[in-house]
Amino acid sequence: MFKSVLFPVDGSRESREAAVVVADIVKTYQAKLTILSVVEPPAEGEAPSPHNSPEAIANLLKSAQEVFAQQGMEVATIERQGKPAFVICDVADEQDMDLIVMGSRGTGLTDEGAAESVTNLTINLSPCPVLVVP
Fold it and tell me: PANTHER family, per this entry (predicted)?
């Protein structure tokens, strides 16, 4: 059913919790796993965040890859720059993914937050099913 799974990571607690679900799906369906990290460029006049430095992103991807490797899974990693929801959907389309699994930060508790959340935008723009792990 799911031959390929895209797992966008951002280092959040929700992302770490979603990793358990991702591992289960990948093992169950013997799917190919791709981990994606999206670096959002700072707004004009804003200083770059230390969380978005090339070193921080490389460490995040390496850590995520190691978590799955310890469970005997092969993992591909992708790092891209741009608006997260758009990049997630673009990568899912380019890589012909069957499923996107992502954590939910709960920022969509208001109408304004729901419309602008990465999760909500990804659900609305995705070329494949999206599983949101609360």
Answer: STRESS RESPONSE PROTEIN NHAX, UNIVERSAL STRESS PROTEIN UP12
**In terms of residue numbers, what domain contains 10?**
4-133
77: CATH:
3.40.50.620
Strand order across the beta sheet in which 4-8 lies: 75-81, 32-39, 4-8, 99-103, 130-133
Round to whole Å and give the CA distance between 83 and 2: 26
Count of the separate structural domains present in the chain: 1
- Stretches in the chain below the pLDDT threshold 50: 107-110
- Rounded Cα distance, 68 and 84, in Å: 22
Residue at 104: amino acid letter: S
pTM (whole model) above 0.85: yes
Tens of pLDDT, residues 102-119: 998 754 444 555 557 899
